[in-house]
Amino acid sequence: MSATEMEEQSAGDEETPVVLVVDDEERIPQAFDVWLDEYEVRGATSGEQALELMDDDVDVVLLDRHMPGLSGDDVLERIRDAGYDCRVAMVTGVDPDFDIVEMDFDDYLTKPVGREELRSVVERLLSLGEYDRVVREYFAATQKRALLESEKPSETLETSEEYDALRSRLDEYEQRLNEMLTDLDPAEYETLFRDLLDQ
Fold this sequence. Notes:
Layout: H1 3-13, E1 18-22, H2 27-35, E2 40-44, H3 47-53, E3 58-63, H4 72-81, E4 87-92, E5 107-110, H5 115-151, H6 154-158, H7 161-183, H8 186-198
Helix pairs in contact: 3-4, 5-7
């Protein structure tokens, strides 16, 4: 793949992030939809509806804890059990207690939540998700390079356009990862480190 083709593919991959807002108070998803106007916002007013709206396109879930029927805790567990690759923030009136230790969420906001706080959290969670994606692509490309280098003579590698493009892609990934790491705060470092240990 040429550098131009890679750029075109990367540009084509940039879709509008999807945020799923789950809260049994109907005004909450409506308000968050207005506040997060640059994203595709899906609103659910029950745990059951949230799971119906959940798919691989969802990047961030904003999840209330206390809801009739399926609670937010139950929804979170089902999302994780299903293997969805998304970030989850609990946005709730429930003050955090020791039960949160075993819960697999990425952030916890106690209501009331303001517009700027919400937008900041969503942006941070999206950046963590992007970092995860680049790390996965980087390791996949690293594995391909190692495989080719173990199987092909160096003379063949030196004349291969595909191998050269792979090396260029690795350089780009390394640069992007370094830039992303520079922008992370200590809490985000901790989240990423925890995620890497869990993989």
